[in-house]
Amino acid sequence: MSILMTQGLRKVYGAGDTEVRALDGVDLSVGQGEFVAIVGTSGSGKSTLLHMLGGLDRPTAGKVFVDGNDIFALRDDALTIFRRRKIGFVFQAYNLVPVLSVYENIVLPIELDGGAPDRAYIGEIARTLGLESKLQSLPSQLSGGQQQRVAIARALATKPAIILADEPTGNLDSRTSQDVLGLMKVTGEKFGQTIVMITHNEEIAQLAQRIVRIEDGRIVRRGEA
User: Cβ distance 152 to 185 under 8 Å?
Assistant: First the structure.
């Protein structure tokens, strides 16, 4: 069953001589619980694709379905709510709130949505990611790898349909990158999460179940990792 699917996805910037086709007819399907890496060089369209998958930017043409919902059929306010509840994001920049504790950062999206955190579930995530003893710490008291683990925990906390990771290890050294991605894979499997990660790092991409390669806004390979 596909939890995420695109149909004829296009994104065009400019017109005439200045036209740039960032995405040029992308058809992609990701199954429930799958861990997919989207690989491409700078300018290949991978970041644009991730933004479309997450509803952060609207396409010129085409559709994106998340958990059976045509997300761009939603109005902006409804899309914002849907994105908050159904999609977890992990970015290269950790985007933690410096004055909030680790626990407060993890539950922030839930509280912004007016919900009550599932403390048992949050505790299980924290234990899995090795953050149990850091829940009352501030981000400034953590290493880069620990801060990225907090970002992963925050993405998992809302129990989203999918997690989108944008160069999640870009600010980490190679050893820490392997550790963090290994934990992301473990948590994804443990909590039944679907993960789509973009990266230019071929070694990191090998941790995924499937590698999708994009060039010039088009998918050119859909193989196994």
Answer: no
